[in-house]
Amino acid sequence: MVKRILQDKVENSLKKFPIVGILGSRQVGKTTLAKEISSSYSNTVYLDLEFPPDYNKLEEPVIFLETHKDDLVIIDEIQRRPELFPLLRSLIDRERKPGRFLILGSASPYLIKHSSESLAGRIVYHEMNPFNTFEVSDFQKTINKLWLQGGYPLSFLNDEDTSFKWRQAFITTFLERDVPQFGIKIAARQLRNFWTMLAHSHGQVWNASQIAGSLGVSYHTINYYLNLLSDLFLVRVLQPYKTNIKKRIIKSPKIYLRDSGILHSLLNIYDNDNLHGHPILGHSFEGFVIEQISQLLPDEKTINYYRTGNGNEVDLVITSANIPEKMIEIKYSLTPRVSKGFFYAMKDLGLKHGYVIYPGNEEYRLAENVTVMPLEKYIVELSNVL
């Protein structure tokens, strides 16, 4: 069984907070993690709200939950019963003690109605992502598999053909079953077309008007679709970093599909030969690297990209309290080069050193203030200083 890096954080939170939430997309491994955590508790109750007998146990929720007030109660797919949130608040306010509830959800608290306002001060959320570099064995040998197939457990742990079929089924199930569960009325075909357009635009600056025109919907509708996929942990909306200096900054975000395997499935990329012959190759690697780095960062760190109207740019800026700490360019080339705009961006951001992540194996200096590094080496170095 793969040890998830989130496990220690969740276990620690359960010692401090009455309610702990694990949020992440469907099939990312939330249930498996919750059951692993529950094995260290003497008394637990697990409720899967997609399983009718479990759902029915909460017909009289006060009676049921009060009966198990001394147990760790795990409620899976909490978004099926958003009306539970005010009740959980009342139960906690009556008897506040850590580790009473572990709730699992497949959407952000903004999409799960009532949760944010009902449980403020009583809950801590942890976002769960697909497998990352620290969770797979022998990353140097499996990096290409993780990049091609993505990090969803049932995708990564299977062979290439089974993985591709699983991801295709995941996409269909998400569109036809999962989205309607949130009360969202969007035709599955329409949302698939939008999702596929995002895949083709992966790593590019968001142009709502262009995509809206292609789909024949309004500017506001297309932004609603984007926010929906973001709230369901399937799309990353990477905002630009805005400096205090007087520069004409690109204001629109860049869009990435968060799991590289899902990206490749939407583009019908099923093996490494397909991937290396596809125009998305460079942007796919860029998004993969961004996700691996972002999963490692503590909550107080933020990621952005930086680009000005006159070409000063870098793919990734890591900030703390809005102050740039690191800048990273991502190049799928064994002989990467950076433009003058990279050095101008370094000056704009007030940094003295920049990094280039590439698919090679060696670390070396591209310039006195620029280090080229393999992803796995940069990840290890970053983890040592955080």
Helices and strands, with pairings:
Blueprint: H1 6-14, E1 19-23, H2 30-38, E2 44-48, H3 52-56, H4 61-67, E3 72-76, H5 84-94, E4 101-105, H6 115-118, E5 123-127, H7 139-149, H8 153-156, H9 160-181, H10 188-200, E6 204-205, H11 208-215, H12 219-231, E7 235-238, E8 254-257, H13 260-266, H14 272-276, H15 281-296, E9 301-307, E10 313-320, E11 323-330, H16 340-349, E12 354-358, E13 364-367, E14 370-374, H17 375-385
Parallel strand pairs: 1-4, 1-5, 2-3, 3-4, 11-12, 12-14
Antiparallel strand pairs: 6-8, 7-8, 9-10, 10-11, 13-14
Helix pairs in contact: 7-13, 9-10, 9-13, 11-12, 15-17
Fraction of residues in β-strands: 15-25%
Poorly predicted parts: none
Alpha carbon gyration radius: 22 Å
Helix content: 40-55%
The CATH architecture classification of the largest domain is Orthogonal Bundle
Most strands sheet:
6 strands, mixed
Number of strands: 14
Examine the coordinates and then state which fold CATH places here, giving the name of the CATH topology of the largest domain: Arc Repressor Mutant, subunit A
Discrete helix count: 17
Number of domains: 2
Give the strand line-up of the largest sheet. 9-10-11-12-14-13
The structural class is: alpha/beta
Termini Cα gap: 27 Å
CATH homology superfamily name of the largest domain:
Winged helix-like DNA-binding domain superfamily/Winged helix DNA-binding domain
For the record, the CATH class of the largest domain is Mainly Alpha
Shape annotation = globular
Mean pLDDT: 93
Describe, in plain words, how this protein is organized in 3D.
This protein has 386 residues and is α/β, with parallel strands linked by helices. It folds into 2 domains: 6-127, P-loop containing nucleotide triphosphate hydrolases (Rossmann fold, 3-Layer(aba) Sandwich); 139-385, Arc Repressor Mutant, subunit A, CATH 1.10.10.10. The chain is 43% helix and 19% strand. It has helices at residues 6-14, 30-38, 52-56, 61-67, 84-94, 115-118, 139-149, 153-156, 160-181, 188-200, 208-215, 219-231, 260-266, 272-276, 281-296, 340-349, 375-385, and strands at 19-23, 44-48, 72-76, 101-105, 123-127, 204-205, 235-238, 254-257, 301-307, 313-320, 323-330, 354-358, 364-367, 370-374. A 6-stranded mixed β-sheet has the order 9-10-11-12-14-13. The protein has a 5-stranded parallel β-sheet with strand order 2-3-4-1-5. Strands 6-8-7 form a 3-stranded antiparallel β-sheet. β9 and β10 form a beta hairpin. The radius of gyration is 22 Å and the shape is globular.
